[in-house]
Write a structure and sequence with these properties.
Elements lengths: L7 H9 L3 E6 L1 H8 L5 H5 L4 E2 L4 E3 L7 E3 L2 E2 L1 E4 L8 H18 L11 H6 L2 H4 L3 H11 L12 E9 L5 H8 L7 H4 L8 E9 L5 H15 L4 E6 L21 H4 L8 H37 L3 H10 L20 H14 L3 H17 L3 H17 L4 H17 L2 H20 L3 H10 L5 H17 L5 H17 L3 H15 L5 H17 L3 H8 L10 H18 L3 E4 L5 E10 L4 E3 L2 H4 L3 H8 L13 H8 L8 E4 L4 E8 L6 E13 L35 E3 L2 E5 L4 E10 L3 E12 L3 E6 L6 E3 L16 E5 L5 E6 L4 E3 L3 E10 L5 E8 L5 E3 L29 E2 L2 E3 L11 E9 L4 E13 L8 E13 L2 E9 L6 E10 L5 E9 L4 E5 L3 H4 L10 E10 L19 E3 L17 H12 L9 E12 L13 E9 L6 E6 L3 E4 L6 E11 L5 E7 L54 E2 L4 E6 L4 E10 L3 E4 L3 E7 L11 E5 ...
Parallel strand pairs: 1-6, 1-7, 7-8, 8-9, 10-20, 11-21, 12-32, 13-22, 24-32, 42-51
Antiparallel strand pairs: 2-5, 3-4, 11-14, 14-18, 15-17, 15-19, 16-18, 19-20, 19-22, 23-25, 25-30, 26-29, 26-31, 27-30, 28-29, 31-32, 33-34, 34-37, 35-38, 35-39, 36-37, 39-40, 41-43, 43-47, 44-46, 44-49, 45-47, 48-51, 49-50
Helix pairs in contact: 4-7, 12-14, 14-15, 15-16, 16-17, 16-18, 17-18, 18-19, 19-20, 20-21, 21-22, 22-23, 23-24, 23-25, 24-25
């Protein structure tokens, strides 16, 4: 902390509270000095500040001290008066306006950074004109009646040697009529020191007359009171002063060069000596003598206990009188005024102890007299004296607070004095590093005048930034308040300046609303001063204001476009935030040797396509290589990492635009920014010579023009409207027409026809489709947007007709693959690979469906469908060699589709084709096709095959069917065994199996058939007998007896069945005791046509590798009602069962029955979303529904998958029971289950462990074993 004397307040007090010299001069004196462009007083002012005057002074005590710093204030007699309020106000406004004009050029620069502001020294943080403004504000209170430091100490009478009768002029100058009114009214002492100065102009006055006049002066006024000043010694009048002492008095630079033009260096030295002598030999001794006299006088009348009692007695009763704002009037000769003069003189002579004692003495008198203005003035001086003498800080602040509060109590008449007191008080606190307290003082003196408040608020803001630590938010907030006040007073430059400084705080914060407020108003104000480009730049910052209200957004947008239109030009804005571009959504799609049939195909991961294409893409001579490795060998090293596209084929860029506002925004002329340059190395990739192609404007400039008129490439333009908060993915394309290097630099768009938004892609991550391959080196973001354009090539287009989006599991469809090549160059050697051969099977080109599908698949029409395997190798389908496409020709190839399993299935097709003599770089291309299928559950089947106990080659087949569809019903058409070994026949009539003709949604069905092994008796290796096709199929419908059965021997059912066999697999596929079944069904009716728009006509369900169970000594059946109604609201449902077991062997059998309560989910079951999974939902049961389950047999090793998720029920009887069953005898075992909720339950969770007697072991393959309970479905319904 600096010493108080050297602080800004100390320097201000030295200048403002200093002796006043009244100047009286004749017109000729002014004329003499105006030759230098300045008046007489202005000529002397630079030489009235003495930094080391070194004058000994003795005031109240006998101890001497020396004055070092001293200042005089010179005023014309006409200026010694109280300033006019309106004039002073205009002068202050002029100071602010002039400062704003000086700062105008700085407004064009970038706003300051908060780090730079904090790193500046304290003296450079606030604007320099604040000090000048504060001095002007203090000067508006000059020559107040209640203060004495503005009273003239001396009078300088100045006469020119050219004046007539100079002695009389001196006498006339101090005439009463010419003196200020304050001296004539008794407020100031007219008996002051007088000093006489004769001015001699060396240009046009004679020395003889001057000497004579000087002699007369000294004889008349005294030798010590008279001085001579010779000036204007330069004859040419062109003297230039390097350090011009008068530069601060004139603001114009041109006028500054003329100041003092006829004053030589000797003249300036003479002026300095004159003021030095006048101060040290006249002013200071006079004030010193005056202080001693006043001190003696006051000591005799006021000091001491007796004088104090007398003074109090004399003033007794004055405090009972009414208070007045002005208080009593005191003349210069009153005791109170004399004490005040003593204190002010002592203060100006730096005897602060004497000043304080005088102020304390008079303070009580003013308070008793209720002279509040005088009292506040004394308290103000006491606070300054405490500060400058570096005494009690507490006392200094108390006095300043007391003075400020007293001034404010006086109302409007005391506000200006309160303002001055506040300025000195704030400077006092700043000198002591109490910046936060200083800011509060500035805030208290804001007042109601907006311009004055603006300056005070701005000064307060700089106090907050100087606190430790800096209070940045308060700093920014007070700057904003100050800027608003400036704008209200039409001080736009200052408003911009304060808001710009506030930006340093708010632009890096999340305070979005105040940030928008600052940017918006800065933009408006820049437009007011005509700086429209800067205005637009700031207004752009508020366009991303989605958090604002809709009304505010409309105001922002309206004013923004108004400002833009006033400029009359289109503004190109890089990084425009309306709309906002989601860079992470940027996706580039292009085609090299890989082409795509649709957008969905291009979005598939490259690894998926690679796995399909590994077997069909040709390899190089050495090792296996893909096309990218081939490209790197054919291209020069510089371009081997480049993306390659084909001339005439579009490069597509997907980019998401988002409207951050709540109001609709129209975006027009959206296009890419591209450049297409010739290959600098004259790279000729093809055999045919060709010329290079330059970009639309030059080889280095981006294409910012329209899409027409450029032959090297074509750009698409998109117009769209974004609603409030809407996002839209926009596809932009560029189609190069010539070879070269294509670079996508960015995107551009227009708003309201006057703003062009530009966004560049140089430093953003890019998802580049067809640019991944197997490269080891990753492309940089810039390289991902750069393409090597090669010569135009043939491109195959493909589509699949009539491909549905939704199907039921088992749905069989006839489709057509259509391929086109619009190029004049032919393609050949076509091959196709399908990701899911289980779903899709290519047909034969010779197939011509003479009958409508699906009738073409029925027996008797199989000659139309011929299965050929000669053109198929592994999973690759090779088109005939004679297939070639060019021009407008198209190829239509049949495809068979079967929805094998439910779920969402992605089908991928890759078609490989070769081009001949077109390009040396690209010999082949691939067409990639992708389709998504949603396969809904339909019928789920399972089979159990049990040997007949009486017939060796006959087997009992139990087929369990569950309709897993949500709503639709299905009709069972046909059941067939695959191959010529097994014949099949019905055990029941068709009407008995399914009386309702349709299997309802959620309904389960069990039915039984007999199959016969048609091999000849003997060993397993003997050949089978070929059965007539009619014996391998059974019809399960009775609507039309003449309707033919479906042929499962030929394509496509046979080929799909082969795929199912390989996909379903089996634990022992080589076992001869397996049977394959194909169930054919139809959709009875659709309750929701929108679920599957194109209704299926035929569904095939394939069950492969069904094992025939080995013989067992036991057979059993479960005796139980199939449907039970129970009210679960009252209690759980207990159901009694009976297990009947027969021992079919000739020996004693020991059987243990174990019931199993362990289910997959032991927790409480949750309601199912439908009938597809879970059994909690109870479907509608019609009277026609009938489930048959009364045949004995053993169950498959693994229960159907649909049964594995049954809800819990518990066996509430014995968990384990052991019985002995005699040969060929039957035993009945009672069982019981407890059911907790309605549903359909599979009662197969029990095991039979058997063991036979010793003498029967030889006749059986095993002496013991375990039989799993077969499925038995029990329906439990909630009773009404």
């Amino acid at each position: 902390m600096v010493e108080p004397v050297n602080s800004p307040l100390g320097k201000m007090l030295l200048e403002e509270i200093s002796p006043v010299v009244m100047v009286l001069c004749t017109p000729l004196v002014e004329e003499t000095f105006l030759k230098n462009g300045i008046s007489f007083v202005e000529t002397l002012k630079p030489f009235c500040n003495f930094s080391n005057i070194d004058v000994p002074v003795r005031t109240s005590s006998d101890q001497l001290y020396r004055l070092k710093k001293f200042t005089l204030r010179l005023f014309y007699a006409s200026d010694i008066r109280q300033p006019n309020v309106e004039v002073a106000k205009q002068r202050l406004e002029h100071v602010i306006t002039e400062a704003g004009q000086k700062d105008f050029q700085d407004l064009k620069s970038d706003p300051p950074l908060i780090s730079d502001i904090l790193s500046n020294p304290e003296s450079e943080i606030a604007p320099t004109w604040f000090q000048y403004y504060n001095e002007e504000l203090i000067s508006t209170l000059s020559f107040s009646e209640h203060e004495a430091f503005d009273h003239p100490v001396a009078c300088l009478l100045v006469v020119s040697s050219k004046d007539e009768e100079p002695i009389n002029k001196f006498v006339d100058l101090f005439n009463t009529n010419r003196l200020p009114s304050l001296l004539n009214d008794g407020a100031m002492d007219p008996k002051i020191l007088k000093h006489y100065l004769l001015v001699h102009d060396n240009q046009d006055a004679t020395t003889e007359r001057t000497s004579k006049v000087l002699s007369e002066m000294r004889s008349t006024f005294g030798n010590n009171e008279c001085n001579l000043l010779c000036t204007n010694s330069s004859k040419e009048g062109n003297v230039e002063h390097q350090a011009n002492p008068w530069a601060s008095f004139k603001s114009s630079a041109s006028a500054t060069n003329k100041l003092g033009c006829v004053l030589t260096g000797d003249d300036i030295v003479e002026i300095k000596d004159l003021m030095q002598e006048f101060t040290s030999r006249h002013i200071i001794p006079y004030m010193e003598q005056k202080v001693r006299e006043l001190n003696q006088q006051i000591s005799a009348t006021r000091k001491g206990f007796r004088n104090q009692i007398k003074n109090l007695w004399w003033r007794k009763g004055k405090d009972d009188g009414p208070e007045t704002t002005k208080g009593p009037m005191y003349t210069f000769s009153s005791n109170e005024s004399q004490i005040r003069i003593l204190g002010d003189y002592a203060f100006m002579l730096h005897d602060y102890e004497l000043a304080l004692s005088s102020y304390r003495l008079i303070s009580t008198d003013y308070k008793l007299d209720k002279a509040w203005k005088h009292y506040a003035g004394v308290q103000e001086m006491m606070g300054l004296a405490y500060f400058i003498s570096d005494q009690s800080k507490k006392e200094a602040e108390y006095c300043m607070e007391n003075a400020f509060s007293t001034y404010m109590k006086l109302g409007k008449s005391g506000f200006q004095n309160a303002t001055r007191c506040g300025l000195w008080w704030a400077e006092m606190l700043k000198a002591r590093d109490q910046h936060k307290e200083a800011a509060s003082v500035y805030f208290r003196i804001c007042g109601e005048e907006p311009l004055h408040a603006a300056v005070m608020l701005e000064q307060a803001s700089y106090c907050f930034v100087l606190t430790k630590p800096p209070m940045l938010h308060k700093y920014g907030f007070h700057l904003v308040l100050s800027g608003d006040h400036y704008k209200n007073c039409d001080q736009v430059n200052h408003a911009i300046r304060t808001y710009r400084s506030a930006l340093s705080v708010y632009k890096s914060t999340t305070w979005s609303h105040i940030k928008d407020h600052v940017y918006f108003h800065i933009g408006q104000w820049y437009a007011v001063v005509g700086m429209h480009d800067v205005a637009v730049r700031n207004m752009l910052k508020v366009l991303d204001c989605g958090y604002q209200s809709k009304a505010t957004q409309e105001i922002f947008l309206r004013d923004f476009f108004d400002i833009v239109k006033k400029t009359g030009i289109k503004h190109e804005v890089v990084g425009l935030q309306l709309p906002i571009i989601n860079i992470s959504s940027l996706q580039v799609m292009y085609e090299d040797h890989r082409t795509y049939a649709s957008q969905a195909s291009a979005l598939v991961e490259e690894s998926v396509w690679q796995s399909l294409e590994d077997d069909i893409i040709p390899s190089l001579n050495s090792g296996k290589s893909n096309w990218l490795e081939l490209q790197s060998k054919l291209l020069p090293k510089k371009y081997k990492e480049s993306n390659v596209c084909v001339a005439g084929e579009s490069v597509k860029v997907d980019l998401e635009f988002r409207n951050p506002l709540l109001i609709s925004t129209s975006v027009t002329s959206v296009s890419l920014i591209c450049e297409l340059t010739a290959n600098p190395d004259d790279l000729n990739l093809d055999k045919e010579p060709r010329s290079s192609s330059l970009g639309p404007e030059s080889s280095t400039e981006h294409n910012l023009g329209t899409t027409s008129g450029f032959s090297s490439f074509t750009l698409s333009e998109v117009d769209f409207t974004l609603g409030g908060g809407e996002k839209k993915l926009v596809r932009l394309t560029v189609t190069p027409s010539e070879e070269g290097i294509l670079k996508i630099a960015g995107v551009r768009w227009e708003l309201s026809g006057s703003i062009v938004g530009v966004h560049y892609f140089q430093s953003v991550p890019v998802k580049a489709k067809s640019a991944k391959g197997r490269r080891k080196n990753k492309l940089t973001p810039t390289d991902a947007l750069k393409f090597l354009v090669i010569k135009s090539l043939p491109r195959l287009e493909g589509s699949i007709d009539r491909l549905p989006e939704k199907l039921y599991a088992g749905d069989l469809r006839h489709l057509v693959l259509e391929l086109k090549n619009k190029s004049e160059f032919p393609i050949k050697n076509l091959k196709m690979k399908i990701s899911h051969p289980r779903f899709v099977s290519p047909g034969n080109h010779e197939e011509e469906l003479t009958t409508e599908f699906p009738d073409c698949l029925k027996k008797g029409l199989e000659q139309n469908i011929v299965q050929r395997e000669t053109n198929r190798t592994s999973s690759i389908f090779t088109f005939p060699k004679d297939v070639s496409l060019q021009g407008d020709r198209s190829l239509r190839w049949p495809l068979w589709l079967r929805a094998a399993i439910p779920g969402t299935i992605s089908l991928y097709f890759t078609i490989y084709y070769e081009m001949e003599n077109v390009s040396s770089v690209m010999k082949y291309r691939t067409l990639r096709m992708h389709y998504n299928l949603q396969v809904l559950p339909s019928l789920e089947t399972s089979f159990e095959i049990t040997p007949s106990p009486s017939r060796l080659q006959e087997f009992l087949v139990r087929m369990d069917i569950v309709n897993r569809a949500n709503k639709d019903c299905f009709q069972i058409q046909q059941l067939s065994t695959v191959g010529c070994r097994w014949g099949i026949s019905l055990l029941q009539s068709v009407d008995t199996i399914l009386p309702s003709k349709s299997l309802l949604a959620g309904q389960a069905l069990s039915c039984f058939f007999m199959i016969k092994d048609c091999r000849k008796s003997g060993t397993e290796e003997e050949e089978t007998v070929s059965l007539p096709p009619s014996l391998t199929d059974v019809k399960l419908f009775t609507q039309d007896d003449d309707e033919k059965l479906f042929d499962i021997v030929n394509s496509p059912l046979a080929s799909f069945h082969e795929s199912e066999r390989s996909c379903q697999g089996a634990s022992d596929q080589s076992s001869p005791n397996t049977v394959d079944f194909i169930l054919i069904s139809r959709l009875a009716k659709s309750s929701d046509p929108s679920a599957v728009p194109n209704l299926p006509e035929i569904l095939s369900h394939h069950s492969c590798h069904n094992n025939i169970r080995s013989s067992s000594p036991l057979s059993w059946s479960l005796d139980c009602p199939q449907t039970i109604n129970h009210n679960f609201a009252t209690s759980l449902c207990e159901i009694k069962l009976k297990l009947i077991i027969r021992n079919t062997s000739n020996g004693l059998s020991s059987v243990t029955i174990e019931t199993i309560d362990c289910l997959p989910d032991t927790a409480a079951p949750t309601p199912s979303s439908g009938n597809q999974s879970g059994w909690r939902y109870v479907p509608s049961v019609t009277e026609e529904m009938k489930v048959t389950s009364d045949v004995m047999g053993s169950r498959l090793d693994k229960p159907p998958s649909s049964m594995e998720s049954s809800p819990p029920f518990i066996w509430s009887g014995l968990s384990s029971t052991k019985v002995q069953i005699q040969p060929l005898s039957t035993a009945e075992i009672p069982l019981q289950i407890s059911v907790f909720s309605p549903g359909i339950y599979n009662l197969s969770s029990f095991k039979l462990n058997w063991e036979i007697s010793e003498h029967e072991k030889a006749s059986l393959s095993a002496s013991s074993g375990t039989c799993q309970g077969y499925p038995y479905y029990l329906t439990v319904l909630q009773s009404e």
